[in-house]
Design brief:
mainly alpha, about 75% helix
Length: about 325
Amino acid sequence: MMMQSDATDSVVRQEQAPSEKTLKRNAKMRGRKETLVFYAFILPFILGFSLFTVFPMVMSLIFSVNKISILDYAQGYWDFIGFENFKTVLFGDDYFFIAMKNTFIFAFLRVFICVFLSLLVALLLNSKIPGRKLFRTLIYIPAIVPVVGSSVLWRQLFDGRSSILSYLLSKIGIQVDATLWLGQYGLYSAIFMSIVMGIGPTMIMILAALQGVPQEMHEAAQIDGAGALRRFWYITVPFISSILFFVSITGFISCLQAYAEVDLLIGSVSNSSMTMSMLAMNYYRDPRIGLGYSSAISWLIFIIVLVFTVIYFSVAGKKVFYAGD
């Protein structure tokens, strides 16, 4: 009787168990549901990226091969001219090369000085000094101030009519024409402002990398007689090289598109401080030139940034050490 009951229960379980076809169908429906949930979560990003990145890029590419101003666009007038805008920029616009020179000066000085100072500050704050948490907070504070508000504050520091910096220098016997800060030396004032605002985030990333350097390697090297400088160069630098590479390449890409830092601080476009992005925006505002010419400059900026990034990766990327290698 027991054997018959067990056999009956086994047959009932087999009848109640879902078939292989049912299991596959359920798995397929579950996979579709998970896919729909995934796309539902990323839909806001896809819409925002399409509307505010892809669409403007496509339209700027179309504008760049047309002679069209803002007034022409409002009237629906399009004049296809091919690559004439690009030829005019490269072979007939001296301001573009002045702006390119200023942009590269801004990028190289800002990135190298900012990374160097951030590394020094991170090394200091990685040691056991009193109040290091407070110092980290104070150094990071300028980064959380919006660019507009920060530019207003810095204008008070450099403004020729009431330059706080010139006043302080005069108290120690250094006389400087206050009009030079936002005039002839306006680009360097913008670099200084950008460095102060950029030290905080860069310092935080380098500090995180420093805390990941194996201390046992430093201790072993110290036992072998290696000095602090040799330990830093042969142990610390290789382990933080990946983050140094990251902050430098992202900094260069950002600085090659510099606009707000210079425009908001100086307030006008001049040959001594003009960047490529400022030049494009200046032409965009001009109703006689407008969309087509400024779009061509924008695409040239994109190509320059792309070429520079590829060269930087090919040269500096090979010397980067990753802990997993």
